[in-house]
Specification:
Keywords: Cell membrane, Membrane, Transmembrane, Transmembrane helix. With about 110 residues, the chain is mainly alpha-helical. It has 3 helices and 2 strands, in the order H-E-E-H-H.
Length: about 110
């Protein structure tokens, strides 16, 4: 089911990107020095679809890094909780092994 849903999303997306690339094949000039301070002409010529897809990819990477750095405190807390849970499990096993076998809790007597 998960594979079907993934294909249901990715196949139309791939078709859309392909149609977009075919429709935008004209070459555009991308100037890397918008203020014109350097003597060298820092201009790249590339198809429009390539420029846009690279810009989207860079945006996805920058956004992913921002989210990853923003959630670092939650990952740290999860690691600490996992270590604490492992220590607690180990302590529980140690206590179970040390407890005498066959003896339960003492009976509670009624005090009046």
């Amino acid at each position: 089911m998960k594979t079907f849903l993934k294909a249901l999303v990715l196949v139309p997306l791939a078709l859309l990107i392909t149609v977009f690339a075919v429709a935008n094949r004209q070459v555009v000039a991308v100037q890397l020095d918008p203020l014109g301070w350097s003597d060298q002409n820092l201009t790249l010529s590339a198809p429009l679809f390539l420029v846009l897809l690279i810009a989207m990819g860079v945006g996805v990477i920058i956004g992913g890094c921002a989210v990853w750095f923003g959630q670092s405190r939650y990952r740290r807390a999860a690691r600490l909780h996992a270590r604490e849970a492992a220590r607690t499990r180990a302590e529980l096993e140690r206590v179970r092994e040390e407890a005498p076998a066959g003896r339960g809790l003492p009976a509670v007597s009624a005090i009046h």
